Amino acid sequence: MRYLVSVIDDKSNPGSTDRGPAISAFNERLVAEGYWVFAGGLADTDTATVIDNRGEQAVFSDGPFVESKEYLAGVWVWEAPDLDVALRLGAEASKICDRKIEVRPFQ
């Protein structure tokens, strides 16, 4: 099963910025153990554009879709045999990247 693993940062209490080497090592392990599908970090929320094209014409708005102190900073997509494995990896990821992690299965 595939899992979306969201990295959540906090503007009022941001995670450490020196985690690159540890995250790279963790990613290499995910690849070696067969869990890796995809990952990427996101630019700051002030670079976001929200598009709403549910009406007669598209409306473009600057900034994130929700104003919040917490924001999505990056994602992984993992292939894991079950939720327990994904949660175990998520707990490791939270420690390694010094941020909250949200794990959600794809349907």
Tell me what the structure shows.
Belongs to the YciI family. The protein has about 110 residues and is an alpha+beta fold. The protein is built from two helices and six strands. It has helices at about 20-30, 85-95, and strands spanning about 1-10, 35-40, 50, 60, 70-80, 100-105. The strands form two sheets. The chain has a four-stranded antiparallel β-sheet, covered by helices on one side. Strands 3-4 form a two-stranded antiparallel ribbon. Strand 3 (about 50) and strand 4 (about 60) form a beta hairpin. The longest helix is centred in the last third of the chain and has 15 residues, at about 85-95. The N and C termini lie close together (about 10 Å). The mean pLDDT is about 95.
What labels would you give this structure?
YciI family protein, Dimeric_a/b-barrel, two-stranded antiparallel sheet, globular, 107 residues, YCII
List the helices and strands and how they pair.
Blueprint: E1 2-10, H1 20-32, E2 36-41, E3 49-52, E4 59-62, E5 70-79, H2 83-97, E6 100-105
Antiparallel strand pairs: 1-5, 1-6, 2-5, 3-4
Family: Belongs to the YciI family.
InterPro entries: Dimeric_a/b-barrel, YCII
Domain YCII-related: 1-93
* Apparent shape: globular
Strand content: 35-45%
Side-by-side strand order of the widest sheet: 2-5-1-6
Mean pLDDT: 93
H/E series, N to C? EHEEEEHE
- Structure annotation, total helices: 2
Distance between the termini: 9 Å
Helix/strand-derived class?
alpha+beta
Nearest-angstrom radius of gyration?
Answer: 16 Å
Overall strand count: 6
Unreliable spans are none
Report helical residue fraction. 25-40%
How would you sum up the major sheet?
A: 4 strands, antiparallel
